[in-house]
Specification:
Layout (H helix, E strand, L loop, with lengths): L5 H22 L6 H8 L3 H7 L3 H9 L14 H14 L1 H14 L3 H29 L4 H28 L5 H14 L1
Length: about 190
């Protein structure tokens, strides 16, 4: 039997995660069955279990989203970075909905919670990094005051971003423009 390359295995695993994510988007994590995930992948159960030990492992892999579109740019002010994140979330309704579904699942599935915690932590650290350079030159803080302020601001901005996801996904007649105005007011008063 020919040896399968590592690249092929990664590619196949990514296809399986994409198929599972589509099923989770449609049915939610808990309502989705392994038979539905297997059918969506077009592979056999054996092929799935060559890559994943079970549904929980697939759920954790699916929960890991690509955050590259939320990178800090050196040419933007910190609040412009956050506004760009909000615009990205507004433009990608599937991502926003998937994040809300995943965060809900994180409450009861530790493996998903671990991924969500890691990814929100990364996003928060990017927010803090974007404000750090600006604050060091624009605000009159001692080093310890700056750290305290950045930790507070990181939490506040993360709340703005996660709040958008939750409201855009759950509030009927959600008004994104009003939310953006709220966010701009908060972010620029920092």
């Amino acid at each position: 039997m020919p040896k399968v390359s590592e690249e092929y295995m990664r590619s196949r695993r990514a296809e399986l995660v994409a198929a599972a994510r589509a099923v989770f988007m449609q049915k939610g994590y808990q309502q989705a069955s392994m038979s539905e995930v297997i059918a969506a992948s077009g592979l056999s159960a054996g092929a799935i279990y060559n890559h994943f030990s079970g549904k929980t492992e697939i759920m954790a892999a699916a929960a890991r989203v690509d955050l590259s579109q939320f990178e800090v740019r050196s040419d933007e002010l910190p609040w412009e970075f956050v506004e760009r994140c909000l615009v990205t979330l507004q433009a990608d309704e599937q991502l926003t909905r998937f994040l809300a579904i995943t965060w809900g699942e994180a409450v009861t599935v530790p493996e998903v919670a671990e991924v969500v915690d890691e990814q929100l932590g990364l996003l928060r650290s990017r927010v803090v990094a974007s404000y750090r350079a600006w604050a060091a030159t624009e605000l009159d803080f001692s080093p310890s005051e700056l750290e305290t302020w950045l930790q507070m601001l990181g939490s506040a901005v993360l709340s703005v971003l996660t709040g958008f996801v939750v409201q855009a996904s759950t509030v009927r007649n959600f008004n994104a423009e009003s939310y953006f105005e709220f966010a701009r007011t908060i972010l620029r008063q920092a």
